[in-house]
Backbone:
């Protein structure tokens, strides 16, 4: 299952070039991603609890997929190889313990 | 496939990843395939996609990783598997953890008497007399 939505009006200057995107540090991707998720969480958690969301950090566009490994490919199909922020919807992804 | 128990009593298997040897700690608390640190990923020439995944460690600390596809030699067969590439400081002296997703369908024997570990395919006589709960 895949959902692709544009959730904000995008100003041209908000959209990153691949060169700009490449230089963004991990901390900033996480910070921006968390801010987008905070805006999206109420809507996402109602219908997609436990699935994965990958958010484009410059525009807030996102894809949803139930599989943690497939969502990266879906994100790249939609947006190309640019930084995105991935997390489990409604709960933390736990790989240990 | 055979590995060893190291001097700190940890089970270690040397795995071929992208045709290079990597010492992996067998971590039955990790439910993915392989978890490696960023430095090891670069050494192996793994291409990492741009997406940052947010997860939580067992002690509640946040951890970020990327997913890369790596080629491992597993029972004489080359397999492409997704690898979790940890973004940040290494937490142990191992650059790689081997998780339970890779072990599913196999029999793992930890022999703390002789200091060896073995991973093999199951045989009929392995079947337990009582099914697991």
Residues:
């Amino acid at each position: 299952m895949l959902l692709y939505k544009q959730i904000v009006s995008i100003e041209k200057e908000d959209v990153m070039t691949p060169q700009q995107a490449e230089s963004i540090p991990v901390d900033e991707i996480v910070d921006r991603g968390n801010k987008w998720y905070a805006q999206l969480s109420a809507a996402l958690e109602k219908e997609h609890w436990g699935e994965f969301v990958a958010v484009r950090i410059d525009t807030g566009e996102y894809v949803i997929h139930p599989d943690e490994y497939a969502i990266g490919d879906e994100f790249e199909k939609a947006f190309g190889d640019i930084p995105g922020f991935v997390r489990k919807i409604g709960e933390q992804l736990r790989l240990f313990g | 496939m055979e590995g060893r128990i190291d001097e700190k009593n940890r089970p270690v298997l040397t795995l071929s990843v992208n045709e290079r040897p990597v010492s992996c700690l067998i971590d039955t608390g990790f439910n993915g395939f392989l978890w490696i640190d960023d430095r090891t990923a670069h050494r192996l020439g793994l291409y990492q996609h741009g997406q940052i995944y947010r997860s939580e460690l067992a002690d509640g600390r946040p951890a970020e990783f990327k997913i890369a596809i790596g080629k491992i030699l597993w029972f004489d067969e080359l397999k492409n598997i997704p690898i979790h590439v940890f973004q940040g400081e290494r937490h142990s002296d191992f650059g790689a953890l081997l998780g339970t997703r890779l072990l599913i369908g196999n029999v793992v024997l930890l022999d703390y008497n002789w200091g060896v570990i073995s991973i093999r395919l199951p045989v009929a006589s392995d079947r337990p007399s009582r099914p697991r709960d």
Notes: Chain A touches chain B through 27 residues (CB under 8 Å). Confidence is low (pLDDT under 50) at residues 6-10 of chain A.
